[in-house]
Amino acid sequence: MLKRLTAALFLIIAPVYAFSADKAAQKETEAGFDEDYFVGLKAFDDGFYDAAQASLLDFLSRDGKSSRAGFATYLLYQIYMFDKDFKNAQQAIDRLDNFKDERFDAKKMEADKMYVAAKINCQDAEKMLLSSINDVWFRVYLDSGCTVTDAVVKHGTRPEFSSDTLYRLMDKSREDKKQMALIYSGLSDKKRTEKVNNYFGRYFASQNMMQEFWELYKGYKDSDMVSIALDYVWNQNDYPKYVNLFGSDVKKEYKLQKAAYCRMIEASNKIGGGFDCGVVDGCLGKDSPDYVKTKLACYMKNEDKDGINVFMKDVSKKEAEGLCEYARYMIGKNLYSAGFLGKFSGCADKGSMYEALYKANDPDGIINLAGKSGGQMDLAYLAAAYSMAGKEDEARAAFSKITEPQFIEMVKARTGLSK
After folding, report:
1. Crossing angle of helices 239-249/258-271, nearest 10°?
2. Domain contains 228
3. pTM
4. Sign (positive/negative) of CA torsion 27, 30, 36, 38?
């Protein structure tokens, strides 16, 4: 009785709405009106799913093979999905294999096959998945509450599968170290993108799977990988290996923590070796109060004269005042150029520097070191330097300004000048 009243109501309003909710239904009514089918379509369209279900089931009890039967089954499948009646939804989807209709959402139906299977029984869903491997089913299965077994994992790295499927598999298997190793070993080179390699490298290290980490590290390195490798070797107190690893694998574009650079300095010192002085920049940074001293000490230790000359060009005279002890060493080891010695003109103990330069027959070095200084000792060494350079007029001019006897005698002895 209720169905007939509903049908009558639909017939009354039909001219007004012209069956706009389902244009296909209007065409089908032209071929022959069926009350249950028509009521089912309209009820579904209006959201009255209980009424739609009852009418469509009545219709299918009489007609199970026509195109109408296919569409009625399709609507029932959607109702069952809405009601989370997965067993009936599964049966409806299976029956839809016998029908073809342009109104069917084939992609959704395919995904829902696996969705309802996983909701009903995970073991059956896994069997279904393994019987017909495809990307859609695999993604749906991974999103379900079903456990991922090794058998499933082995198929998850197929080249034809999307990256999205791979990431879902990685996330699903994260708590199982064996499966994660299995996933990575099954990946093709094309699948081992920078993102994937980085993910697995960090994962292996975090799980103390160092054999897997080092195997990955052979073929892929980035800032994270190198940082992990260095940190591991450092914690093993293997200083020679740390130095070798740092020297071979660290690139300028890598962004490493300061500790990695500072450890390089410490490890080098422990084994008595030198290191690239650019490491000081990474460890201290140019704003550190110890930067200039440490960087210059590195160049001196490496006896890198060219490096010292380039570095000293950027050192201010004020900064050089804190490097006076280094200046004496550089002069003694011939690790200097005369051009930057003027920056040390303010050093208190220039006597030993002057003397070293004089013994090295470097008048230009003495002249630059003296700068504009007018002290008696400065004038004495200037006079000696000018005389050594064959600049007698300048030598006499400097000598004429000397008043202290000890310096007058020193110049006389070294130049032959006299007053």
Report:
1. 130
2. no
3. 0.73
4. positive
- List all residues 6 or more positions away from 360 whose beta carbon is below 8 Å from its beta carbon: 331, 334
pLDDT in tens, the chain (419 residues): 444 444 444 433 333 323 333 555 555 554 457 899 999 999 999 999 999 999 999 999 999 899 999 999 999 999 999 999 999 999 999 999 999 999 999 999 999 999 999 999 999 999 999 999 999 999 999 999 999 999 999 998 998 999 999 999 999 999 999 999 999 999 999 999 999 999 999 999 999 999 999 999 999 999 999 999 999 999 999 999 999 999 999 998 999 999 999 999 999 999 988 889 999 999 999 999 999 999 999 999 999 999 999 999 999 999 998 999 999 999 999 999 999 999 999 888 889 999 999 999 999 999 999 988 889 999 999 999 999 999 999 999 999 999 999 999 999 999 988 86
Is 384 a domain residue? no
Q: Which of 231, 242, 248 is nearest to 267 (CA)?
A: 242
Domain with 171, as residue range(s), is 150-220
Report yes or no: 101 and 70 within 8 Å, Cβ to Cβ.
yes
**Helices 376-388 and 363-370: angle between axes, nearest 10 degrees:** 150
Helices (H), 339-404: 351-359, 363-370, 376-388, 392-400
Residue 183 belongs to some domain of the structure: yes
Place of tokens 């690790």: 335
Is residue 211 domain-resident? Answer: yes
Nearest to 324 by CA among 366, 260, 282, 369: 369
Q: Is the dihedral of CA 379, 380, 383, 389 positive or negative?
A: negative
Please give the span between the terminal C-alpha atoms of the chain, in angstroms, as a whole number.
141
Helix or strand or coil: residue 278? helix
> Residue 84, by phi and psi: left (phi above 0), alpha (psi -120 to 50) or beta?
left
Q: How many structural domains does the chain have?
A: 1
How far is Cα 50 from Cα 127, in angstroms, rounded to an integer? 33
